[in-house]
């Protein structure tokens, strides 16, 4: 039995003083390794475990063998390069409450399977202070889970963070008319039963329509019945496809009656507690199809002799906190949603239309309350000072990005002509100065074009475009970034609670993986704990215009951490900023509403500020809104996949130009640049060679030929199968494999690893 490491907790595996106390011949027992993994789910990669127990050299090889044995024995599983106990719950999990114990304490099971055995039981704790959500039997909840040491009781305790909306009254399905004239609902999801619809509850649905139905209570005999609530149209329409994503990801999309009633009862804000800025010619610049406008901008030269060549930039943001107060029905619903969700032709808003598209939309020529920041920049683009103001404003003009850009480029129209010299040119002059500061700061500069789906009138795909990236876009983006920085700096200076937008530097493991990949291309990345975006930019600049430019941009992107919300500041790596908080979109992001409330409270700007109760819950709120953001991204991505799959379903056997977007042991993911959609090529269809996966080079290569395919390669493929409802496409490779960069060294290293894996005792190496 190995001895326990003294003087530290397993929860802090990187304590240098502790590692010095560990003897060179120390090797932890299996139980100690398993305990560490259970207690540190976020730091359970091989490198993390080795660091925790100060293992080096041969001891790391020993650890690798132990971890492999534990996986083969079914004790551990590996997910996203992290190890976990089989059947172990994640630290934040979705639970279904099924009953109570003898003391009346609620008991729950995980909503999704976490192993092959009996699901673990979770004892539900009431939130601290009794102010949190109060769940009951039958509820589905999001909870933080904590392992227990009591072998006779539940394996975990859980603290409820959120109660999910009950969804028993809304089911999606396909309306089918059978040969005998009866109606059935074919379920969209496999776990749903087939339903019968009586004629009086058809509600105009036709054969093949996607419908939303309300199931009736199941009868003792036969299939359960349902009535059609809404006809969503053809399965190939965007409205139907986005509704599938809304239901699949449990996105609340219907505002409860009390929320609508509360929004309709709200009265417009007055000048109380506000400065009158209605004469300042602030303008909104948004996409041409924008329905709400939550930010306005203005700029002017700084006339202060102490700041020659400087500018004053002003950003005004809709004052949502004036209408959405903490603890109200509006606030609870906004927190549940976390953010608005954007589909190609639909928005699921965070706030009702009365708030988002009316009272808080900075409409041209109408009085609107706003929270504004006035920022002074020196001639070299660095911010000297800033101040926040609660104001009443009146937008001087509603402009679209191309419209504003055209005016600057010498083609003004009837709206931009009169304000070209007084408003637009000063904005562009200010941007030119602020950009100097951005260039000096050197944020991460990835070149990854975004695609936009354009739809026909019937909701099906018309075409996919890559919108031109204009200086007008960059101007608004940089003004918003600077406003976000000012918000974080102000709240931090006031020692006031806030939620930061944080972005961690790439993990050491991701850095090393990227470094190994770059070496295959003859590129080097410096080592060191304090990575800078400029180091990545240097790599990107070296490959600009080269054949592997897209490949390197893609791999650098995948090496980055995911941004999230947190009350603890670690800075924003990608933007190269020490303090950053979301402030500029409170109509569509709850995080921004929190920051607004914080500024109002910290600066004494009137009612609607952050309360002490709300401040005490910021850690849980940050976890929730980070989760709703990821949920929205997944739903948006799924909708695009389904739309494009349905669009291409009639083009089986057609050839397409594609780019390899992912490489796995099982095969290749390819993306069609024209459509921005992904499909899969199984490795078994690549030909007669035996293909080996080289993780370092992100490639598959043939054992006999040494030729293969690599991430970002441009290839030609044939579409062979489409599953529109699943958003899945399968392709056949038409392009021959090629010699790979860094071929000889990469080839022999990967081949050696593969053969070593296949020759290990108990190894399950197989031909792919």
From TrEMBL:
Name of this protein: Ribonuclease R
Keyword Phosphoprotein attached: no
Transmembrane segments: none
Reaction(s) catalysed by this chain's protein: Exonucleolytic cleavage in the 3'- to 5'-direction to yield nucleoside 5'-phosphates
GO molecular function: exoribonuclease II activity; RNA binding
Residue spans of biased composition, Basic and acidic residues class: 9-26
Annotated region described as Disordered, given as residue ranges: 1-26, 734-768
Organism, scientific name: Mesorhizobium erdmanii
Similarity comment text for this entry: Belongs to the RNR ribonuclease family. RNase R subfamily.
HAMAP family named among the record's database cross-references: RNase_R (MF_01895)
Subcellular location: Cytoplasm
EC number(s) stated in the UniProt entry for this protein: 3.1.13.1
Record's function text: 3'-5' exoribonuclease that releases 5'-nucleoside monophosphates and is involved in maturation of structured RNAs.
Gene3D superfamilies cross-referenced by the UniProt entry: Nucleic acid-binding proteins (2.40.50.140)
GO terms under biological process: mRNA catabolic process
């Amino acid at each position: 039995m190995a001895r326990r490491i003294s003087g530290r907790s397993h929860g802090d595996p990187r304590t240098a003083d502790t590692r010095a106390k560990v003897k060179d011949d120390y090797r932890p027992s299996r139980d100690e390794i398993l305990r560490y993994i259970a207690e540190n789910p976020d730091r359970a990669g091989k490198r993390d475990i080795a660091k925790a127990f100060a293992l080096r050299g041969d001891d790391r090889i020993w650890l690798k063998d132990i971890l492999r044995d534990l996986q083969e024995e079914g004790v551990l599983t590996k997910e996203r390069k992290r190890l976990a106990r089989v059947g172990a719950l994640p630290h934040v999990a979705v639970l279904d409450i099924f009953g109570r114990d003898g003391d009346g304490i609620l008991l729950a099971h995980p909503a999704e399977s976490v192993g092959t055995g009996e699901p673990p039981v979770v004892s539900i704790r009431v939130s601290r202070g009794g102010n949190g959500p109060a769940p009951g039997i039958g509820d589905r909840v999001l909870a933080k889970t904590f392992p227990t040491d009591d072998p006779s009781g539940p394996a975990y305790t859980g603290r409820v963070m959120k109660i999910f909306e009950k969804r028993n009254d809304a089911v999606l399905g396909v309306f089918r008319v059978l040969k005998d004239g009866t109606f059935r609902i074919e379920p969209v999801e496999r776990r749903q039963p087939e339903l019968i619809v009586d004629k009086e509850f058809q509600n105009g649905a036709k054969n093949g329509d996607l419908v939303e139905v309300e199931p009736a209570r199941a009868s003792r005999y036969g299939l359960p019945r349902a009535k059609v609530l809404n006809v969503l149209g053809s399965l190939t329409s965007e409205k139907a496809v986005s509704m599938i994503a809304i239901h699949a990801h449990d996105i609340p999309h219907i505002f409860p009656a009390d929320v609508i009633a509360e929004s309709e009862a709200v009265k417009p804000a007055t000048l109380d507690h506000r400065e009158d800025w209605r004469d300042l010619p602030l303008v909104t610049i948004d996409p041409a199809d924008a329905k709400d406008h939550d930010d306005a901008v203005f700029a002017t030269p700084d006339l202060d002799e102490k700041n020659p060549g400087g500018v004053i930039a002003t950003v005004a943001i809709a004052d949502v906190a004036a209408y959405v107060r903490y603890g109200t029905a509006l606030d609870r619903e906004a927190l549940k949603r976390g953010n608005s969700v954007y589909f190609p032709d639909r928005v699921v808003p965070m706030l009702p239309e009365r708030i988002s598209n009316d009272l808080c939309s900075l409409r041209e020529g109408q009085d609107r309350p706003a929270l504004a920041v006035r920022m002074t920049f020196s001639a070299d683009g660095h911010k000297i000072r800033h101040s926040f103001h609660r104001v009443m404003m009146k937008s001087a003009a509603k402009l679209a990005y191309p419209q504003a850009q055209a005016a600057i480029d010498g083609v003004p129209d009837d709206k931009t002509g009169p304000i070209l010299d007084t408003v637009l040119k000063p904005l562009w002059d200010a941007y030119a100065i602020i950009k100097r500061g951005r260039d000096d700061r050197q944020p991460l500069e990835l070149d990854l074009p975004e695609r936009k789906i354009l739809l026909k009138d019937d909701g099906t795909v018309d075409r996919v475009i890559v919108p031109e990236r204009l200086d007008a876009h960059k101007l608004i983006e940089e003004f918003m970034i600077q406003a976000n920085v000012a918000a974080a700096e102000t709240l931090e200076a006031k020692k006031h609670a806030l939620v930061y937008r944080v972005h961690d530097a790439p993990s050491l493991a991701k850095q090393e993986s990227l470094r190994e990949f770059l070496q295959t291309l003859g590129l080097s990345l410096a080592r060191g704990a304090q990575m800078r975006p400029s180091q990545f930019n240097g790599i990107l600049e070296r490959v600009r215009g080269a054949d592997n430019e897209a490949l390197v941009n893609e791999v650098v992107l995948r090496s980055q951490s995911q941004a999230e919300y947190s009350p603890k500041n670690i800075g924003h790596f990608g933007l190269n900023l020490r303090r950053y908080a979301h402030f500029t979109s409170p109509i569509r992001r709850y995080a921004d509403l929190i920051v607004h409330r914080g500024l109002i409270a910290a600066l004494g700007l009137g009612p609607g500020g952050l309360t002490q109760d709300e401040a005490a819950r910021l850690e849980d709120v940050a976890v929730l809104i980070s989760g709703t953001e990821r949920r929205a991204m997944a739903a948006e991505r799924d909708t695009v996949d389904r739309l494009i799959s349905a669009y291409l379903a009639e083009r089986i056997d057609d050839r397409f130009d594609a780019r390899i977007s992912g490489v796995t042991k099982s095969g290749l993911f390819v993306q069609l640049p024209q459509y921005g959609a992904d499909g899969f090529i199984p490795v078994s269809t690549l030909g007669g060679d035996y293909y080996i996966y080289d993780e370092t080079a992100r490639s598959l290569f043939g054992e006999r030929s040494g030729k293969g395919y690599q991430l970002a390669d441009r290839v030609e493929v044939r579409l062979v199968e489409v599953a529109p409802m699943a958003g899945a496409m399968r392709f056949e490779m038409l392009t021959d494999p090629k010699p790979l960069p860094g071929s000889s060294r990469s080839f022999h290293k990967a081949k050696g690893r593969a053969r070593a894996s296949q020759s290990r005792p108990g190894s399950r190496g197989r031909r792919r």
